[in-house]
Each structure stands twice: as C-alpha cells, then as structure tokens.
Amino acid sequence: MSKTKDKIIVALDVETADEAREIIAEIGGEVGAFKIGLQLFTAAGASFVREVVGKNIKLFLDVKFHDIPNTVAKASVEVARLGVWMFNIHAVGGGEMMRRTVENVREVCARENLEQPKIIGVTVLTSADQETLREVGISREIDSQVLNLAKLTAKCGLDGVVASPLEVDAIRRNIEKKDFLIVTPGIRPSFATNDDQKRVMTPKEAVSQGADYLVIGRPVTGQKDKLSAVRKILEEIETE
Ligand code: C5P
C-alpha cells in the first residue's frame, strides 16, 4: 500500500501562480500531489502547469472536460502533452466521449513517447445533492446515478472515478477492475467546516472506505499554517 502522504492531493484553488508557488514550497514535501483546477488554470494557464510538472511534482489537472467527443479527445491529448499525472472528464458526457478520449490519448502517448496520464471520470459532484439532480431533470437516486456513471467509466477504459467518499464502498463492491482508482473530494478533517460541500467525510473514514486519493482544498489552503494542517490530517488518518 502507498504511504499515507501519497494519498493526499492538495487543491491549489488560488488566484495566482505566486500563491500556488508559495503553497507548493510550504507543503510540497508532505503531500503526494497537487491539483490545478479551473480557477488557477484559467488565471495562470498551461505555462504554469508546465512549470510545476517541470519540478517533478505530480499534478492532477482538474479540467472536468465535457463537450462533443472529438473536442474532448483532442483537448485531452493536449493535456497529456503537458505531462500531467492525472486529469478528468465528466462521465455524464457519455460513452463515446470517454472511449474516444482514452483511445486518442493512448495513441498519441505511444507515438510521442509520453507518459500516459491517468484519466478519471467525474461522477456526481460532491457539492450536489438530490435537489441539484432534480433541478437538471435527473430523478434517479444520487447513489444509483454515481454507480451507473462509475460502471460506464470503467467500461470505457478510464483509470478511475472522482466520487464522494460516501459512494466509495458501493463503487468498490460493484466494479470488478481491481486497480480502478477512486479519487474523493469532499474531505473534511475534524477541525474543518463543510463550506459548500454537501457529501463529506473525514480523511480517515474516506481511506478506510477504500479511497485511493483524497483531494483536499480549503481545509489546508484556507489555514494560516498549512503545514500543520497537512500534518494534522496525516495524523488523523494514521491514528488507530
Ligand atoms: O476546498 P475543498 O476541499 O472543498 O476542495 C475540493 C476540490 O475538489 C475543489 O478544487 C473542487 O473543484 C474539487 N472537486 C470537487 N468535487 C468533485 C470534483 C472535484 O469538490 N466531484
């Protein structure tokens, strides 16, 4: 099993590359990877992604692509060319979109001798609840929607899913692929508040449910002393 710190992905949800550089310098040695999402990617762009990757830092590019299959597949190839360790697309974009992405990324990585990034499908956002689904015309129970999308993701050959920690156990029980990765945001250590996340768990609970990676943002980046927040989280996970 990987070390506890390797499971922690810290979300760099900040406005500028400089703020992100400071966070990386402060806690880079204590966590497994960092995540750049839509805010920082829009502000600092691909050049900042290249800079971080160039420092040998594992980077999860949280772009959550959802568009027509051709557009998502081609954008994903460009993400692979940036050298990131992991990125994601929305499973609700459908089977063809996911299959074409996997095929195109595989093909280009083989041809250009690039390391193939892990491709992860987003199921239902952890900020969503039953009412959010109802609003957009999905009457299915949230758990069943997540499971349905996780199965489709696995069938299309992706490496894993992003799901709330509350769904990890059901996904593990229903997906045969042993190395199917489960990445869980919505993590709230005992010392943190929930913010806008609705389906949350503590880091320890999420790991014991079988999550491979925990995405943690505000409980770390919103703290004055980020290093001690990370250490408290690691301690929480490791304490019997
Ligand atoms: O600050 P917090 O810990 O809530 O940050 C969670 C991070 O995970 C955010 O960057 C958010 O965009 C991301 N995320 C999420 N739910 C998903 C996928 C990604 O919260 N389903």
What key phrases describe this protein's structure?
45% helix, single chain, 240 residues, TIM Barrel, 10 helices, binds cytidine-5'-monophosphate, alpha/beta
Describe this structure in words.
This protein is α/β, with parallel strands linked by helices. The chain has one domain (2-238): Aldolase class I (TIM Barrel, Alpha-Beta Barrel). Helices cover 45% and strands 15% of the residues. It contains ten helices and eight strands. It has helices spanning 17-27, 38-54, 69-81, 95-111, 130-135, 142-155, 168-174, 203-209, 218-221, 226-238, and strands at 8-11, 33-36, 59-65, 86-90, 118-122, 160-162, 181-184, 213-216. The protein has an eight-stranded parallel β-barrel, surrounded by five helices. β7, α8 and β8 form a beta-alpha-beta unit. α3 (69-81) packs parallel to α4 (95-111). The protein is globular. The two termini are 17 Å apart. The mean pLDDT is 96. Bound molecules: cytidine-5'-monophosphate. Residues 11, 13, 37, 62, 122, 125-126, 162, 185-186, 195, 197, 215-219 line the site of cytidine-5'-monophosphate (C5P). The site of cytidine-5'-monophosphate has 17 residues, from β8 and α9.
